[in-house]
Amino acid sequence: KFTKTIFVGDVAVGKTSLVNRFCHEVFDSNYKSTIGVDFEVERFDVLNTPFHLQIWDTAGQERFKCIATAYYRGAQAVVIVFDVTNTFSLQHVPVWLEETLENNKEKPLVFLVGTKRDLVSEPVYHMVEKQAIAMAKSLNVEYWTVSSKTGENVKGFFFRLAALCFNYSVLREMEVPQSSEVSKDFVSKYLDEILTRTEINPYFIQFVHVVSACISFTLYNSLAYICLFLLVQKCGPYK
Ligand SMILES: Nc1nc2c(ncn2[C@@H]2O[C@H](COP(=O)(O)OP(=O)(O)OP(=O)(O)O)[C@@H](O)[C@H]2O)c(=O)[nH]1
Ligand SMILES: [Mg+2]
């Protein structure tokens, strides 16, 4: 089992740092912009079942947009990242969501993640958190806040992501699309097949008629012969 997850969000909000903190347990304070897209695979064991999370870390820079959007297709989970020190990055969240949904036929699981928690004081964070929660509610997505520098909440977030993705993929496997329509089609299709299979060949019916006529003719002859024999026995010239 595996799930494709994409990380999107404004430039330098901390997408790569979040992925690297979880996948490689490192943090680099120097900024190196992602060019196009980076890729990681993480293995989890959910209920003793191996489960792989494909992580596509996209570039936030406008000039790499067309490369990055090519990787949105088929994503089962979307992580929209914003920076808690930059409220503009939170305001752009609906745009990121719309762009990722445009490229996917089925609605993916969506998470909103605020990064750089270590850079803001408690009162400032509370103000940002209020706005972030309101945004998450309006978009009907789950909200998390993390710090890739200290590692706060990073593991918790990825384990939650993996668990929900696993659950989602199991439900999709079990899903029977448009159940009543499908069963109707299924019945009519197989009923047709059964009907054509049990239809009797007209030559076979003629053959049966001929055989039964022959049998009746033979029986009739035998019966006539027996009657004649008895008649001859009773009233014949012999004593
Ligand atoms: N203090 C602190 N700095 C962070 C945190 N996360 C990221 N940074 C810094 O923010 C800058 C940008 O981080 P990146 O992870 O490269 O950002 P990005 O979103 O991948 O950027 P693009 O790939 O250009 O879209 C880097 O200098 C990081 O060190 C964090 O949680 N705390
Ligand atoms: Mg990056």
UniProtKB/TrEMBL annotation:
The keyword Nucleotide-binding applies. The chain crosses the membrane at residues 207-232. The keyword Hydrolase does not apply. It holds the Pfam family Ras. Keywords: GTP-binding, Membrane, Nucleotide-binding, Transmembrane, Transmembrane helix. It comes from the Eukaryota. This is Ras-related protein Rab-34-like. It comes from Limulus polyphemus. The lineage of its organism: Eukaryota, Metazoa, Ecdysozoa, Arthropoda, Chelicerata. The gene is LOC106468358.
